[in-house]
């Protein structure tokens, strides 16, 4: 991208110390990019300490909503990956003003401050599909029907990014797996944690289906998007495991194969606060040559090992 071979391409990653960022940033550095991370480190995480020995890494502690901080960082970047986000329907419902300013306004700011030459790669979510039609796969052509503030903000900003003609958006399945900045509130991570520590779970609306993807394969999708930007730009891509469109009950059965003493109870009463229910096709990104590497079985096995180290009191988002 840079005609001058001596300067590596610079990638600005906002929220780069988060769950996805702390997995992606080391991979970008390994691939030869210079990386600037802007993060507020609001969760007390130390997730990038293993990368700070690299001089190509710049870390800026600050708020993505502060134009005085953001503007000079954007000016230096070739590629922008906005990961800073209030993630998930419950958190956005609790903090709607922050959700708007971080998940929409701050990304709009990046779009306004950047030029035609700069590339944007953005994670939206396949929660935009809301409540799908039974047995029908959601593709990138499926009309978005977000049922939460989180989903709506993601869908709105995605439209603006794609209209710019210089962005790729990834509609990510529910991420899972161990990351240097761990999150236990994601579905697979949460259910596996309960299997390991509580040995039981009570499921509400156990038939609800989701698609899943390992956080390392999310990072891989961003690298793939950078490498194939010219052919992929202007489009949205679902990113998930095509063999893992599973209901919550089926997910628990997968975990039980590795934690046999896990007891699964279905409750007739009670609602999942998150009413999403859909299956997703990942054919479009697979047609560009992308393939995830980590199976759901391997992800669960990794989590079980990781939970010998991690306990809940350290790692939650709320």
> In which range does the helix fraction lie?
25-40%
Q: Which secondary-structure class do the elements indicate? A: alpha/beta
The first-level CATH class of the domain at 10-176 and 212-241 and 281-292 is given as Alpha Beta
Poorly predicted runs are: none
Strand line-up across the major sheet: 3-2-1-4-5-7-11
CATH architecture of the domain at 10-176 and 212-241 and 281-292: 3-Layer(aba) Sandwich
What is the element string, with H for helices and E for strands? EHEEHEHHEEHEEHEEHHEEHEEHH
| Global Rg | 19 Å
Major sheet attributes: 7 strands, parallel
Q: How large is the count of helical segments?
A: 11
What fraction strand? 15-25%
Shape: globular
CATH topology of the domain at 10-176 and 212-241 and 281-292: Rossmann fold
The total of beta strands comes to 14
Report the span from N to C terminus: 39 Å
What is the residue-averaged pLDDT? 92
Which key terms come to mind for this protein?
single chain, 318 residues, alpha/beta, Rossmann fold, seven-stranded parallel sheet, three-stranded mixed sheet
Summarize, please.
The chain is about 35% helix and about 20% strand. With about 325 residues, it is an alpha/beta fold.
SSE topology sketch:
Elements: E1 10-14, H1 21-30, E2 34-39, E3 57-61, H2 67-76, E4 79-82, H3 89-94, H4 96-113, E5 119-125, E6 137-138, H5 149-163, E7 167-172, E8 174-176, H6 187-197, E9 200-204, E10 209-214, H7 215-227, H8 229-232, E11 236-239, E12 245-247, H9 248-258, E13 263-267, E14 279-280, H10 283-286, H11 296-306
Parallel strand pairs: 1-2, 1-4, 2-3, 4-5, 5-7, 6-14, 7-11, 8-10, 9-13
Antiparallel strand pairs: 10-12
């Amino acid at each position: 991208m840079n005609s001058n071979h001596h300067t590596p391409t610079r990638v600005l990653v906002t929220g780069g110390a988060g769950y996805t960022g702390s997995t992606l940033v080391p991979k970008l550095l390994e691939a030869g990019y210079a990386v600037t991370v802007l993060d507020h480190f609001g969760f007390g995480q130390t997730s990038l300490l293993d990368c700070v020995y690299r001089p190509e890494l710049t870390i800026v502690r600050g708020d993505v909503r502060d134009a005085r901080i953001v503007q000079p960082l954007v000016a230096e970047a070739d590629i922008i990956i906005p990961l800073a986000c209030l993630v998930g329907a419950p958190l956005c419902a609790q903090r709607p003003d922050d959700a708007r300013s971080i998940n929409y306004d701050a990304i709009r700011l990046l779009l306004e401050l950047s030029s035609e030459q700069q590339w944007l790669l953005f994670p939206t979510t396949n929660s935009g599909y809301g409540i799908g039609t039974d047995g029908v796969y959601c593709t990138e052509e499926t009309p978005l029907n977000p049922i939460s503030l989180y989903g709506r903000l993601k869908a709105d900003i995605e439209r603006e990014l794609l209209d710019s003609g210089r962005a790729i958006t990834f509609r990510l399945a529910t991420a899972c797996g161990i990351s240097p900045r761990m999150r236990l509130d994601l579905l697979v991570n949460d259910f596996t944690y309960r299997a390991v520590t509580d040995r039981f779970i009570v499921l509400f609306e156990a038939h609800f289906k989701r698609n899943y993807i390992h956080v390392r394969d999310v990072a891989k999708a961003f690298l793939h998007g950078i490498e194939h930007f010219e052919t992929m730009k202007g489009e949205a891509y679902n990113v998930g495991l095509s063999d893992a469109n599973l209901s919550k009950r089926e997910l628990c059965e997968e975990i039980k194969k590795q934690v046999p003493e896990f007891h699964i109870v279905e409750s007739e009463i009670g609602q999942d606060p998150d009413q999403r229910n859909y299956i997703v096709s990942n054919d479009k990104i697979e047609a560009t040559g992308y393939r995830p590497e980590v199976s759901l079985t391997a992800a669960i096995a990794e989590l079980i090992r990781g939970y010998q180290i991690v306990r809940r009191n350290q790692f939650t988002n709320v």
